[in-house]
TrEMBL record, chain A:
Full protein name: ATP-binding cassette domain-containing protein
SUPFAM superfamilies reported for this sequence: P-loop containing nucleoside triphosphate hydrolases (SSF52540)
Keywords for the protein's UniProt record, in alphabetical order: ATP-binding, Nucleotide-binding, Transport
Taxonomic path: Bacteria, Bacillati, Actinomycetota, Actinomycetes, Propionibacteriales
Keyword Iron-sulfur in annotation: no
Source organism of the structure: Kribbella soli
UniProtKB/TrEMBL annotation, chain B:
Keyword Coiled coil in annotation: no
Listed name of the protein: ABC transporter permease
Alphabetized UniProt keyword annotations: Membrane, Transmembrane, Transmembrane helix
Transmembrane segments: 32-51, 71-94, 115-142, 162-183, 190-209, 238-259
Extent of the signal sequence: none
Organism phylogeny: Bacteria, Bacillati, Actinomycetota, Actinomycetes, Propionibacteriales
Amino acid sequence: MITLEGLTKRYGATTAVDSLDLTISPGRVTGFLGPNGAGKSTTMRMILGLDSPSDGTALVDGRPYAEWPRPLTKVGALLDAKALHPRRSARGHLVAMARSNGVPVSRVDEVLSIVGLDAVTRKRAGQFSLGMGQRLGIAGALLGDPEVLMFDEPVNGLDPDGVRWVRELMRSLAAEGRTVFVSSHLMSEMQLTADQLVVIGRGRLIADAAVGDVIAGSSRTTIVVRVPDPAQLAVLRDRLTAEAERVETADERLVVTGVPAERVGDLAHALGVRLHELATERASLEEAYMELTADSVEYGVAVAS
Amino acid sequence: MSAAVITPRIIGGLPNAVRSEWTKLWTVRSSWLNLAAGVLLSTLLGMQYGWGLAYDNSHLGPGEVAEKQPIGHFGASVILIVQVVIAAFALLTVTSEYATGSIRSTLQWTPVRRYVVLAKAAVLAPVLFGYGVVVAALASVAGGLTAGSWADWEAAGFVTDLLSVGFYATAAGLFSAGIAWAVRSTAGTLTVAFLLLLVVPLMMGQSSLRALVWTSALLPGGAGQNYLTGATDPLSPVLSAVVLIAWAVGGLALGAGVLKRRDA
């Protein structure tokens, strides 16, 4: 479990992370989303003690990362796959890593085979492709068999097979009861991988909710109801206007936001309104995300209206 | 992932960090290349000094007397130049981490930052000592062979000279590694080490001004030269050794202080 309390990072006048309060729980994949410059990487770096917070605390199972005697057995993290000596072999890199935390060297060969790099263990890490580098980074994260895993953009540079492999790996790690905290820009991927979503913008928490709730809460998720009789349409519309966020009329259809389909169906039944169609049009996570972060895009592009 | 069983070999951040640094030192080629360069350079310089001695002794000016030289002195002379290579060996273990970004991995593995500085120093110290002894031995033997009959192969003095060079290489190397944590770039650290170990003491030590002689004796390079030549003015060899230890410890303390405060 990762606990952030009032976590803040300031660089001069700029506040990169602004009093973040957050609990990332075990047993599920928590997606960490936000526009570029929102403070995702800085937050992850503070959890690992690479950057020190200006204020607040970041704890892993109740203690700062640096206070765990063998931290790699507590938290495995892939923040930057390029943070290694390019002329050291993949195996040499992992052996040095294992020794730093008293992990048996036999575990190195295990994780190399888990990530599918067994054939290139002698190859220098600097000659790895982007995707192989990511796999080596993931091998490092798994090395200490940790309870908590953090990945910053893990599918960056992976081919479709690799993307799918990472997705299944995350799901299985969470299923084993581990805490999995993963940032990504690929919303379609997050929609498939994550259970819980944490969205930040300009260093502040925007949302911390289950993926389903984020999507359901979007104004892009709508109920479409078709009523052939114009009089009945008007009755239902007036009734729905009282409790929905928004009701729009288009020909013989009502497009309703903020009321679940069950409620619309029950109301129609109670009012004796004859329906020809009742459907939910779900927003994609991408649409829900764009709506959430619309106000906090750091490097926004003006859209011609 | 299958449930992996991981049993710790050693509990303790510092011993683990030392093992990791030992592995890191020998799994990059630059360490080996540096050793090869140091060995080659010191052998060649030793030969040159031996020939130089033989030439001087067989081409004496009026009033000059030919003198035999203990072979250990070749080693002590050669280290004056080769120390730059040895300093590079030590400081590269730090600056290469900043150049490649691997420092972020190192600090993730060992988040207690003073352990990282201590572990590197603990690995470097015996290696630097051995490096200094080997380099001095090669230079001494090479110089002794080329000097021919002018070489004095007395064993006890030779061993003392070798151990002295080993001590100096350790102190100069640890000092260089210490300041590398503060400077971070290879070129910058090499410049500082080159100035303090070689250039400034060499310039000031020749001065007739006492203040400059003293300044030189208190800088690491000057203290090293005085220590290795057994000079007693202005400081005794023991005090010169104390000055060297102070620079090594001070450099490492500075490095640890800077690393602790700075974001990786």
